[in-house]
Amino acid sequence: MRLGHRPERDKRITTHVGLVARAFGAEEMILAGRDERLVSGLEDVVHRWGGEFRVRSVGSWRGEARRWKEAGGRIVHLTMYGEPISEKMDEIRSSGDLMVVVGAEKVPAEIYEMADWNVGVGNQPHSEVAALAVFMDRLWEGEELAREFSGKIEVVPSPRYKTVIERPEGEGG
User: Fold this and answer.
1) Quick check: is 58 in a domain?
2) CA torsion angle for 158, 161, 162, 168 (degrees, to 10)?
3) How far is residue 2 from each of residues 56, 73, 150, measured CA to CA in Å?
4) Which residues are annotated as part of the binding site?
5) In a 10 Å sphere around its CB, with 0-12 CB exposed, 13-18 middle and 19+ buried, how is residue 158 labelled?
6) Number of structural domains, the chain?
7) Are residues 135 and 119 in contact, defined by beta-carbon separation less than 8 angstroms?
8) Fewer CB within 10 Å, N- or C-terminus of the chain?
9) Beta-ladder partners of 32
10) Which residues are annotated as a binding site for S-adenosyl-L-methionine?
């Protein structure tokens, strides 16, 4: 869940949060707030590049977090003020369904209380995109990098050249 998205200031970073979430194994991005251009842009990436990733906007992050917890899910809040990721990852990994909360502007103090874990990916200022990527990679232990997406566009790994397969409409995805 992306908290505190400000459409006029954060569209690029929030888009990158969504791209990292998708590429690194998340099933869904929940945007706390409204930004239909951002949502449709991420949906277009899924359409072209493949995968089962969903994007949705919600009016109340509190309501969404409460419903998640009531259904038995656990919440991880990524913050530089949290406990070190290396000390908590085994516990988190074995806990079941997770909602990972990534803030934009200053997050409400309430999220620190609602979260099952407040985890720091380092304790120095850095990008929330970097924190999410490191967290997701540690969560999946690198396995997410081998996932295959069946989209209209596919990058073929090459040591020197850019090789891209573009399938006609109706194939892939």
Assistant:
1) yes
2) -80
3) 11, 17, 26
4) 78, 103-107, 121-128
5) exposed
6) 1
7) yes
8) C
9) 58
10) 78, 103-107, 121-128
Residue 28 lies in a domain: yes
Residues, the chain: 173
pLDDT score of 170? 62
What CATH number does residue 121 fall under? Answer: 3.40.1280.10
Binning pLDDT at 50, 70 and 90, where does residue 8 land? confident
107 close to 79: Cβ distance less than 8 angstroms = yes
How far apart (Å, rounded) are the C-alpha atoms in residues 163 and 25? 24
CB 22 within 8 A of CB 54: no
Residue 168 is assigned to a structural domain of this protein: no
Euclidean distance between CA atoms 116 and 92, whole angstroms? 9
> What domain range is 95 assigned to?
2-142
125-129, long-range: CB within 8 Å, 24+ apart, which pairs?
Answer: 125/80, 126/80, 127/13, 128/13, 128/17, 128/78, 128/102, 128/103, 128/104, 129/13, 129/16, 129/17, 129/20
Please report whether residue 67 resides in a domain.
Answer: yes
Instruction: Please tell me the distance from the alpha carbon of residue 11 to that of residue 5, in angstroms, as a whole number.
Output: 8
